[in-house]
Amino acid sequence: MTQKSIPVKQPLLDWLRRNVAKLVVAPTFALMIFFVYGFIAWTGYISLTKSKMLPTYSFEGFYQYIRLWKMTPWNVAMENLLIFGSLFILISIVLGCLLAIALDQRVRAEGFLRTIYLYPMAISFIITGTAWKWILNPGLGIQNTVRSWGWESFSFDWLINSEMAIYTLVIAAVWQSSGFVMALFLAALRGVDSEIIKAAYLDGASLSRIYLVIILPTLRPVFLSCFFILTHLAVKSFDLVVALTGGGPGYSTILPANFMYEMTFRRNQIGLGGASAIMMLATVMAIVIPYLYSELRERKHD
C-alpha cells in the first residue's frame, strides 16, 4: 500500500518562500536579544538594588549610583577615561590620516609599509601591553638602554610615575590602532576622483591645499567612523591596562572597565559593578544617539 502524501496548501508554501530568510535568522536574532539586550536590562535592574556577592531583587532606587560617584577610584577612572580617550582618539586619527596621505603618494614598497602599519592591529591588547611594559620599564627598556650609551642623567620613568603613567596607555593604544585608521583613510583616498585632483593642479593649487580644502572635507564619513570606533575601544579598554600598568601606580591608571571588574568579581559588589557598567553604557550612548539622530534627520530632509 502506498502512503498518501499530506497535501500542503499553496498559501502556506508561498508564505514560507517569502519568509524563509527571516526564519533562518530568527533563532540567532532571538538569542542576541536575550543574551545582549536581556542582560543589559538585567544589569540595569541589579544596579538599582543592594546586591553584593549574590543578586537580590529588592528595589533600592539610585543608592548604588550615589555611592558610586562618591568613590574616589571611580572619579579617578572617569578622569583617566577623559584624558586617555581624548588623546587616543585625536592622535590616532591625526597620525592615521597623515600615514594614509603619505602612502597615497604612490611611494615605493607601499605594500610592505602598509603591512607594517597594520600589523599591530592584528595582535591583542594583552600582547601590546606586555611588549610596551618591557619597552617602558626603567630597568629594562628605553631608560636603561639610553643610560647604557653614556647618558646617565636620562630619565623616562612614566610607567612608575603616577602623574605620567596614564600617558603610557595612550602611547600603546595609538601604536596599535593608528594603522587601522590609516587603512580606512587610505581606502577612502583611493576612491577620490583623480580628475578633481588634476583640475586643482591645473588651477595652481599646492598639494597641501588640495588635501586640506578639497579632499579631506569629503572624508567626513570616514572621520566619523574612526571617531566612533576609537571611542568604543577607549570606553571598553580593560586588557591593555591590566597588561601594561595593572591600574597603578596605586589606582592612578584605572579605567571604568577595570573599576567595574574589580567591584563585581573581586570585591563581590555586583550592584555597584552594575551601576558602573550602566554609566559606561550611558557614556557611549551620549555620543552615539546624537550622531544617529543627526544622520536620520539628514536622510529625512534628503
Percent helix among the residues? over 70%
Task: Give the H and E element order.
Answer: HHHHHHHHHHHHH
The structural class is mainly alpha
How many helical elements? 13
Name the beta content range: under 5%
**Quick check: average pLDDT?**
87
Distance between the termini: 67 Å
Description:
With 302 residues, the protein is mostly helical. Helix content is 71%, strand content 0%. α2 crosses α13 (270-301), α3 runs parallel beside α7 (165-190) and α12 runs antiparallel to α13 (270-301). The N and C termini lie far apart (67 Å). The mean pLDDT is 87.
Short précis:
This protein is mainly alpha-helical and 302 residues long. The protein is built from 13 helices and no strands. Helix 4 crosses helix 7 and helix 7 packs antiparallel against helix 10.
Q: What attributes does this structure have?
A:
302 residues; mainly alpha; 13 helices; 0% strand; flat
Describe the secondary structure blueprint for this structure.
Elements (H helix, E strand, L loop, with lengths): L9 H37 L16 H7 L2 H32 L6 H9 L6 H12 L5 H7 L16 H26 L3 H9 L4 H9 L4 H16 L3 H6 L11 H11 L3 H32 L1
Helix pairs in contact: 1-13, 2-13, 3-7, 3-10, 4-7, 5-7, 7-10, 8-9, 10-13, 12-13
